[in-house]
Amino acid sequence: MVGATPQQVVINVTEKTRPPAPAAADLTAPPGDRPRSGLPAGRLKAGRFQVGRPALLAGALGLLGLLCLLSIAVGSRQIPLDQVLRALTGPRDTEIGTIVWDARVPRTVLGLLAGAALGLGGAVMQALTRNPLADPGLLGVSAGAAFALMLAVGVAGMTSLYGYVWFAFAGALVATVAVYVLGGLGRGGQTPVKLALAGIAVTFLLESVTRGVSLIDPQVLNRYRFWASGSLAGQNSTTIMQVLPFLAVGAVLALSLAPALNNLALGDDVAASLGRRLRLIRLQGVVAVTLLTGAAVAVAGPIVFVGLVVPHAVRAVSGPDQRWLLPLAALLAPCLLLAADIAGRVVARPEEIDAGIVAAFLGAPFFIALVRRRRLAEL
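Structure tokens predicted for Iron chelate uptake ABC transporter family permease subunit:
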């Protein structure tokens, strides 16, 4: 440069070689929408690969469809696949058609609905409480619904689903309130471990009382022993259609909470400053969890760990954005429940192991590993 001082030359060379400044992140967007690691919003980095959330959603749909076909094709009785396909498309009055349409198809649909309900319920509970151990089966919600159902069936003698399902909702709500009150006592207020311990204590208490009530009537005891293990068998399409409206309302409420839950993850003060009504959000979340858990327990029994394992697995691959986490949890939770049901039908042929037992066998190690983490921070 002609006429330039040495200091000006150094400054000009430094400005030419300096890398461009990174673009500023949009701090007004929810945490799940902000680009991470230089990737555009909606794409996550897994190892050397970039995984898009729409691709995860499509993969979850494909996996769920495959497991639905396996649930219909595989059972304690071996039936060739071509005969199963003919029964699905042909007449239903044959022996195989009766097995497929009256037993396996309702069982598969029930696994879809109950799994989606438990997955959504667990994801909403974890987001509302910012507690990684929140789960309808661990925090006493399922046990409360089961206890109220046993009172309705064993003491009041109710036999209609529309009669005793309201008891399930009431029991789930009362148990939820009791666990949160107990978990908030003492020094330090509510913590994830204290809530988990309170939920386990309430669950054991309610289960012991429920078993005591079931001993009054041997018929009720036999029904309770089958139902309490968490089974997808034994329900027909009429029962599924009766419980479907409650599950649909609960799912709509849960999915509509996704933007508000993103704001709530930033803290109560930030969410309130963004115009969120915190009491309304929590009330809507409690109603959604009560409907989803109560209806699922009413038809499938208390199934644990599905609502705990699936949201954590989804969060690991999709990020914390609830607008993606909730739909993915609603798709992958039925995958886990159907896989557990299929495994229970295959490993004990010609007998069966209930899906709730297999799901607990798969989820218990995950729960132990989660509790043993050195720093169990709130979400």
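Confidence is low (pLDDT under 50) at residues 4-42, 45-50.
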